[in-house]
Specification:
Elements (H helix, E strand, L loop, with lengths): L1 H4 L2 H32 L1 H35 L5 H18 L3 H11 L1 H21 L40
Helix pairs in contact: 2-3, 3-4, 4-5, 4-6
Length: 174
């Protein structure tokens, strides 16, 4: 019964994440064996350490830069969606670079491509736009605007309530 409430898209996404979480270590081991045999142990270790250091540097640099871009977008009154997606892609790429392995490094490089980030931005924008329109709760109907200058106060049954004058002092005690 509880499964009926979970959207099918979410179930598919969770299954995909679970599959990737199980398959990634096996792919990384296979990558180490295959590429380690081609490059040798020393170059493989240099690659892993260099990728880890690059990931740490990217994470540090991107985090500070993302906060600055987010603040600038909010100060200008712009929607910070592009800044958020860029920051998330850079952070995910940095984490993938920190994880030792060639497959995670390849995925990180794909996330760093501007085309990938723009594609993700378009996907998330349409997803959120669809969800916002789906959940507005707007009741369809008709309305007309009544100008205030043309209304006659004697015919208007929407008179404001009388104002009560109260000269008492209010003391707020915590």
């Amino acid at each position: 019964m509880a499964r009926d409430r979970v959207p099918k898209e979410l179930v598919k996404m969770l299954r995909l994440i679970g599959f990737i979480a199980v398959a990634l270590p096996f792919l990384e081991i296979a990558g180490f064996v295959w590429l380690g045999g081609k490059l040798g142990v020393l170059l493989t270790l240099v690659w892993v350490i260099a990728a880890m250091l690059a990931g740490l540097a990217l994470l540090r640099h991107t985090g500070l830069q993302a906060v600055g871009r987010l603040r600038a977008a909010l100060a200008e009154g712009k929607e910070p969606g592009h800044s958020i997606i860029d920051a998330a892609c850079f952070a995910a790429a940095a984490i993938l670079l920190i994880i030792p392995g060639f497959v995670s490094d390849a995925l990180a490089l794909v996330l760093l491509l501007p085309a990938t980030r723009h594609w993700l931005l378009r996907r998330t924008a349409t997803h959120f736009e669809t969800r916002v329109y789906r959940s507005t709760g707007t009741i369809p109907g008709e309305f007309s605007v009544v100008p205030e200058n043309d209304s006659d106060p004697e015919q208007d049954d929407r008179t404001p309530p009388p104002r009560i004058r109260d000269d008492r002092k209010i003391i707020d005690v915590d």
